[in-house]
Amino acid sequence: MHTGSCLCGQINYTIASDSGPIIYCHCKRCRKSSGSAFVTSMQIERADFKVTSGQDFIKIFHHDGGVDRAFCSNCGSQLFSTRAATPDLMRIRLGTFDSEVDSKVSSHIFVDSKAEWHDILDNAPQHAQRP
After folding, report:
1. What are the tens digits of pLDDT across the range 16-75?
2. Max CA pair span of the chain
3. Are 65 and 73 within 8 A, CB to CB?
4. Which residues are within 8 A (CB) of 26 and not within 5 positions of it... i.e. 6 or more apart?
5. Which residue, 53, 36, 49, 46, is CA-closest to 95?
6. How far apart are the C-alpha atoms of 108 and 128, rounded to whole Å?
7. Where does residue 73 rank: exposed (0-12), middle (13-18), buried (19+ CB within 10 A)?
8. What is 2-113's CATH number, 2.170.150.70, 3.30.70.660, 1.10.260.40, 3.40.109.10?
9. With contact defined as beta carbons under 8 Å apart, do 46 and 89 qualify?
10. Where are the domains of the chain?
11. Using CA atoms in the order 115, 116, 118, 123, what is the torsion angle rounded to 10 degrees?
12. How far apart (Å, rounded) are the C-alpha atoms in residues 105 and 23?
């Protein structure tokens, strides 16, 4: 099981499963939403995710591309994203975990649109788009 929270602590959650794959997404939308070179997410089953406090602080940004991004309305922390194409899965932002994660990155996706100022230096598989 994993636990996590937003920066201000208003939102807390649990994940009732083992670690899923950790993915670095380099697409332009993830870069824009995070303000960084990529977003680091762990893919999990939606049924394993539970908000334990602060549900009222969660706001959803609905993007035309079928991706919904959840964030804390108080501190702005990105929490997770969901895709209309995969309704049973969600991608939790790894930086919001409070518990330890033993896994390492499993892959990089959308490397064809990665930031030109960022070099990928690990040996994880790289995919031009979503595999």
Report:
1. 987 789 999 998 988 988 889 999 999 999 999 999 999 999 999 998 878 899 999 999
2. 40
3. no
4. 37, 38, 108, 109, 110, 111, 113, 114, 115, 118
5. 36
6. 9
7. middle
8. 2.170.150.70
9. yes
10. 2-113
11. 90
12. 6
- Beta strands 67-72 and 78-83 are antiparallel
In 3D space, the residue among 39, 83, 33, 75 whose CA is nearest the CA of residue 54 turns out to be 75
One-letter amino acid for residue 20 of the chain: G
Burial class (CB in 10 A: 0-12, 13-18, 19+), 29: middle
Task: Phi first, then psi: give them for residue 130, nearest 5 degrees.
Answer: -80, 125
- The closest alpha carbon to 5, from 123, 90, 97, 112, belongs to 97
Alpha-carbon distances of 125 from 16, 24, 83, 101, rounded to whole Å: 27, 10, 22, 20
Model confidence pLDDT, tens digit, residues 105-121: 999 999 999 999 999 99
